Write the structure tokens for this entry.
Amino acid sequence: MAYKGPISQRQRRFGEELQRLRTAAGLSAPEAGALVGMKGPAVSHTEAGRITLNPERLETWLDAYGCTDPAYRAKLADMGRSSGKGWWTNFADRVPTLLLDLAEADHSAASMDNFETFYVPGLLQVPAYIEAIFEDADQHRKLDVEAEIEFRKQRQRILTDLPRREFRFVIHETALRMRFPGDAVMRQQLVHLLEISELPNISIQVLPFTAAQKPPSTGPFVLFDPGAQALSTVVVDHPSHTEYLGDQHSIEIYRRTFNQLSELALPPVDQSLTTPSSRDSWGLIRHLLYLLQA
């Protein structure tokens, strides 16, 4: 059955994985189709994310392609049978498609690694900070902007709705020194970072100006891991667009990059272990709070 409406990032990734597995197994589209009673063009449409694939056909293909990783098979099956519907569906006609794709990636993630340079990560932003980001938006898009603000607030629920999810954030000190929201809002934002870091599934680190080693060259990115590393996705923000990367080479580069950033950053906020003489993320955030109050 063909999908109705635009093809989501999840649907594209599902199809790309099927094509990658088939190609690695040395089978043509007609040969793969013959295994499940499909013609070659239907296989191509499936691999382009344009039509659905029932679970029985998927299992037949995975067997034929020599795919034996149980975690990968299970997560790929989840990806294929997902309806794509969730809380974000209510925003389908009000926010850009890329935000809907992001929410779907959130929903399926078992863990998330996020590096930010100039802004506090969206999942950690307080409402007043979110509003400050959008306050200079084009007034002709006022309704859309209001929807995007509400969308971001709704998205933050993933931090607490399933505590088993793991979130790691590395934030450059630059983002914590920005004054564009106003001092009162930044104080509120910094306090929120300290409070939310108390959740056991959230790690917040600050990459300080005083880092002793050269950090890897990168802009903001998020790495989503659904519980099968081969199905991880990297989301990279560019000035003109947002890019989704799912090839193994890119995933490995960004996973290694995040780990390097984490090693260079100050130890995570952990108020139970902090001492007056320690140099960690908690201490730096507290120092920045003091500067705002001075």
Remarks:
- The chain has a mean pLDDT of 90.
